[in-house]
Amino acid sequence: MEYLLLIVSAVLVNNFVLSRFLGICPFLGVSKKLHTAMGMCGAVIFVMTVACAVTWCLQNFLLKPLELEFLQTLTFILVIASLVQLIDIAMKRFVPPLHAALGIFLPLITTNCAVLGAAVLNMKQGYGFVKSTLFGFSAALGFALALVIYTGLREKIDRADPPRCFQGVAIALVTAGLLSLAFMGFSGIVK
Amino acid sequence: MDSETIKFILTPFLWVGLTGLVIGVSLALAAKYMAVREDPRIAQVTELLPGANCGGCGFAGCAEYAKAIVVDNADITLCAPGGAACVDSIAAFMGVSAGSVEKMTALVMCCGDDESAERRFSYNGINDCAAADALAGGDKGCTYGCLGYGSCARVCPVNAIIIEKGLARVNKALCIACGKCIAVCPRKLIKLVPTAAPIHVLCNSKDKGADVKKVCSSGCIGCRLCTKFGDEGAFVMDGFLAHVDYSVPITREEVIEKCPSKCIRRN
Question: Which of A126, B6, B54, B254 is at a distance of 20 to 30 A from A120, taking alpha carbons?
Fold first, then answer.
């Protein structure tokens, strides 16, 4: 039950993009086509889950015993970025099909604020290892949900005929705002 | 400064430096031992291709096509934007014979603009040809003609298509013959034709002459005058619609004047 609540909270109530406003750049940048958006979603889910697991170990086995918690942000950025690079190299060598599907998105999200945000929030909440990893996974799932919904909306808008002054980025930002408002309806369901 | 302060300053430096060093070395090692060896010819063939990444060859971009040429011996004449020069250079590089490729261009087989072709109702829906076509067969009186909502212009990677008076027109100087517009047109009236061909029948309507005349003043009425006045075999009738046989050289261009509905035109 506890885990279920965690998932619902991270996916819907405290959605990373629409409630916490993290990871806005890929949200606006790769939401033009559903196909690329799906690739991005896969990469984010993968990276965030792995990053949360690794940063938890880093925090509890290295930073805490050495009393270096104030270097958390710097270390996390460094480790996450190089970890993704490492996975990228290994993936290209051992699982080429997966690399072909996610390859170009992996470097894009190495130092994304959503990834770092999930890691730092984990430490703030004091989650255990399993909970941390699960939180990373479901937060990424929430990101994927928001991105897919938003991409669907943008594809529809592309075919519509908005007033000239709204065309392009303007209507895209208005749509993002309205989608965020819709997700505000979930607030209060889970703490 | 006492030793406590020095330790306090030095530890973060050491920690970050050490982490960076460990990560850097392991990344370098990983890159060395897990490197994927690619055939160096793939990069060289990619250089020879135009780099438009239009996908007209059927592969996901120039690099993928180069890979297919080198690894799977794919046909080297598939690149339309590159044309003959590109095929020749790849043929020389790969040591295979090129054959000849004719430069092609897309052509909208319709000349019924808003002045000559009538519209049955005022379409106010989604700005997309497929959507317009799905609504009661489209607003254009002619069910074969160009709807002019610009679906082809939007997919064109080089912006070679413009919409003029409700009719799509291809600028053949810009067209790279990638075929994207052909795939997206709901009425299938864009065709690839030789760029060098002088004249075309710009109509796609297979209806009888009387029915064509009701909805469009510049549609082919199937009068067969072009088969009489044009070069031998250059014009072929398909029911009530004339086609140009592009394999026959055109010498008698006065056929343009003879066509009663003026749908035989220069491109």
Answer: B6
